[in-house]
Design brief:
The protein is an alpha+beta fold. Helices cover about 35% and strands about 15% of the residues. The chain has helices spanning about 20-30, 50-60, 85-95, 115-120, 135-145, 155-160, and strands at about 15, 35-40, 45-50, 100-105, 110-115. α3 runs parallel beside α5.
Amino acid sequence: MKVRDVMMRTPATCGAETNLGAAVEILWKRNCGFLPVVDTNGKVIGVVTDRDICMALGTRGRLPGEITVGETISGKVFACRPDDDVRVALGIMGQEKVRRLPVINDEGKVEGILSMDDIVVHAEAGSPGRPSELSYQDVAVTLKRLYQADLPELAHKSATGS
């Protein structure tokens, strides 16, 4: 199964100059929690999530209209391509501990969004003699990687009694 078969094809985006108040309005109107951030040429330069916005507003002591999306993004983009196998995208999600990926084309422009929600909806149990294209086990393994806590070394030693 390819990413293009599962992805949401009408993604909302914003620019780095978009203020957080406007970004929240986009998230609200589109009922989503993730926006690819694009430059003036439409190329993906980052992503902003509802959590990113919440943390920025809670730690900066400024109004939403005073903080730009560009101030909250890391510039690291984990993405996939429309022709990637969904298992490749699951691998990226599990390794990078992200639940959503922008789907970008060869020019770096966003074509869609792939979320764990989309993947869960398309997963199947399979049947004897006919394995599914995307199994419940594929999804469960990725979810386990996503939700496995990365404890700091000192906390980890304390938690294990070492």
